[in-house]
Amino acid sequence: MTTLLEVRDLRVEFRTRDGVARAVNGVSWEVDAGETLAVLGESGSGKSVTAQAVMGILDSPPGFVTGGQVLFQGRDLLTMDREERRRIRGARMAMIFQDALSSLNPVLSVGYQLGEMFRVHQGLSRKEARARAVELMDRVRIPAAKQRVGDYPHQFSGGMRQRIMIAMALALEPDLIIADEPTTALDVTVQAQVMGLLAELQREFTMGLILITHDLGVVADVADKIAVMYAGRIVETAPVHELYKRPAHPYTRGLLDSIPRLDQKGQDLSAIKGLPPNLTAVPPGCAFHPRCPRTRDLCRTERPPLLPVTEPVVPMPQARAGTPLSEAMGEAEVPGRTSACHFWKDELHA
Questions:
Q1: Would the pTM count as exceeding 0.85?
Q2: DSSP string spanning 60-72?
Q3: Beta-bridge mates of residue 213
Q4: Are the beta carbons of 163 and 140 closer than 8 angstroms?
């Protein structure tokens, strides 16, 4: 697989009157061509700020990238000048924002806004750009695209507006799309349609997709791997099915336990107690320890590093004979699995 985007030790801070908020504090992950990475976490965990820093659209001030690298196809976006980065943004990397109504200009028709991509990046005439806008609206299955290309954003439903945002991101057939909460405020049926459309288009163009969300239900069907964020850091990474089956961090388990289930009808929903920390005063040790049901003394004093998750290795002939794990010959890293918990083994085997 070809690595499209690699984020290395990214750090972003916001300088406020109340102090410095380290919204992204040493985040690292990567996404390959044709792969979907889901970035999960509660509001305020640093997901969207990471995406804005990657795209180069962070409001500065008050936000500042203070360290790390963002390598797109091997080139560091953070060291590029503004004009070079602008040429990449939209043409080779694109973003779908969470609130389509506020992201689209209310006084310009959707056809004009879609066509602007072609006028700016490809130098097409207004007539040619409008024709391409109709093609894009057809591609994302907006009914009667030719008749509706002159309509304004408020004349479309929430789901249709989100399709227009997808069309805008796809306009120049980029290599990578970042979708920031693309199904926010949509009902479940429309959510499924939008996510199905995104997955279909991703396969068609072999794009990399970064899906930023707090909705684990959305992630399960479309993601290949997951990075879980808490208080500006990655606390767990795993292939999607492994994470759902056996989380290796208590925060991830708390998120999974909070999903409503059909077999728990009539029961109270599980919730993670407390609130996420104030990023200007993150507690010492593990940032999650004030809310964690497994907190021990070590958690309060020492911050756990993000380390590979390992499993016992049993020689094959003995394994067939049922050799217990206690007699295993060492341990091996589980591909793609990491956890920032001192006691991840307890969580993994809970």
A1: yes
A2: TTTEEEEEEEEEE
A3: 40
A4: yes
Q: How far apart are the first and last CA of the chain?
A: 34
Give dist(CA 350, CA 346) in Å, integer. Answer: 6
Strand-pair partners of 177: 94, 209
Is the CB of residue 249 less than 8 Å from the CB of residue 341? Answer: yes
pLDDT digits (tens, 9 = 90+) for 26-38: 999 999 989 999 9
Closest CA to 257 of 303, 292, 308: 292
Quick one: tokens of 343? 């006691």
Report the candidate in 169, 241, 180 with the shortest Cα–Cα distance to residue 205. 169
Read off the pLDDT of residues 47-99 as tens digits, 9 standing for 90 and up: 999 999 999 999 888 899 999 999 999 999 999 998 888 888 878 999 988 77
DSSP letter string, 9-48: EEEEEEEETTEEEEEEEEEEEEEETT-EEEEE--TTSSHH
Domains and CATH numbers, the chain: 3-231 (3.40.50.300), 242-348 (no CATH)
